[in-house]
Design brief:
By secondary structure, the protein is of the alpha+beta class. It is 27% helix and 42% strand. The longest helix is centred in the N-terminal third of the chain and has 33 residues, at 2-34.
Length: 186
């Protein structure tokens, strides 16, 4: 029931935001009419510019990859791959480690809008890339790192108002910890 109430609250906020947005657009059009631009190309140009601005604010723009290349990472130390970023959409997270004594586990920690998710693989294969994948049947601390490429099946992994991504190994003798994140932000 709480989930339904939460959705109703979110829908109410979205409706209010769109109502406010339409009110703002109406005020702009009224101002244009009052200044004598109600007909002609000037008013269309102003309206086009306003609509372009609105579309740009809602569009995610691809960013350069966030990367980590950590030599001799310490066991149990979280290394930041993507520092806290506002309005971010995570497209894919990939991580690997090169070891002489196998660590367990290899993990990626994502903090998104204050919620922590942990993607993990026990006994990772040395020098093998793993991708973060959401498992709807697993808990927040038991999401998976897998060698399966899910990118063709979805346009992005996660998005939020605030996103931070860290990588970590536990145990073993690891000479290199690498990670790469493809992301966009508004």
């Amino acid at each position: 029931m709480g989930s339904l109430a939460c959705r109703a609250g979110e829908n109410k906020k979205l409706l209010q935001n769109s109502t406010y947005g339409l009110s703002a657009l109406k005020a702009i059009l009224d101002a244009m009419e009052g200044s004598g631009f109600a007909t002609g190309t000037d008013s269309l140009k102003v309206l086009s510019d306003v609509l372009d601005l609105i579309r740009t604010e809602l569009t995610f723009q691809h960013q350069a990859d966030a990367t980590l290349s950590q030599a001799s990472p310490g066991s149990g130390t979280k290394y930041t791959v993507l520092d806290t970023t506002a309005k971010a959409r995570i497209i894919v997270i990939a991580v690997k480690c090169i070891w002489t004594v196998q660590p367990t586990p290899l993990e990626v920690h994502v903090t998104i809008d204050g919620v922590s998710l942990t993607f993990t693989v026990s006994n990772p294969v040395s020098d093998t890339w793993y991708q973060a994948a959401l498992d709807p049947t697993a808990g927040e601390t038991s999401q998976v790192l897998t060698t399966t490429n899910f990118l063709p099946y979805r346009s992005f992994l996660l998005e939020g108002r605030s996103v931070k991504v860290e990588a970590e190994i536990t145990g073993g003798t690891v000479s290199q910890l690498d990670a790469r994140i493809k992301y966009a932000k508004r």
